[in-house]
Amino acid sequence: MTRLPAHTAALLVLLAGHATADPDALWHIISEQCVPDQQQSHSPQPCALVDLAAGYVVLKDREGDTQFLVMPTARIAGIESPAILAPDAPNYWQDAWEARRFVDERAGRDLPRDDISLAINSEYGRTQNQLHIHVDCVRPDVRAALQAHTDAIGPQWTPFPVPLAGHHYLAMRLGQPEFGTTNPFELLANGVPGARDDMGRYTLVAVGDASGFVLLAGRADLPANRGSGEELQDHTCAVAH
Questions:
Q1: 10-residue block means of pLDDT along the chain (241 residues)?
Q2: Strand order in the sheet with 49-51
Q3: pTM score > 0.70 for this model?
Q4: I need a labelling partner for 33 at 20 to 30 A (CA). Which of 47, 193, 212, 234 fits?
Q5: How far apart are CA 209 and CA 139, in angstroms?
């Protein structure tokens, strides 16, 4: 029997934990492999990218051909963490948007803005206790719904007129091609009554459009709705075919 290198074997164990029992599997990959490998050998493996200065990594998710995760190198549990709303907090949404190039590479072509989505699940709708933004293609039916109801999306949070993936979302339009210093976490906390004190119950999604973004916020309502905005993504990336 062929013996796997220890590095590869450890990654397989950690990825298996990501899928099943270990809620800290992603943190182990970041802190025990990606960051040390970048520091010691200038290689991001098993991550696709490690940016030590900006404090984030990009990792290919085990599910789907085109899905990547953007995660801080700091230990931050998720959307409920006060760290994401600190005055000096990095804008991981801008990092995630820049990471769409990895999706393009896996898709074999440069995808239009409105094919790309970014999503973070609520603390009830995730399996991992390390903040991670899913970067992947948007579901075709979600893209169609956003296009059909574009006139209902304005600069303030308002209920989106139809359910998406069977759940209700608030929507707002961000009319700028990059996030820059505009942080969707802050837009949610400051713009939705009660959200700042209950961030862990919210899921947040950004979908590109012609010149900016549509932001979608959902709230977990257990047990029927776990607040998993990742449901609006398509890990088969049908829009690329």
A1: 37 44 94 97 97 98 96 98 96 98 97 98 97 98 98 97 98 97 97 97 97 97 94 96 86
A2: 49-51, 56-60, 68-72, 133-137, 116-120, 202-208, 213-219, 170-174, 158-159
A3: yes
A4: 234
A5: 14
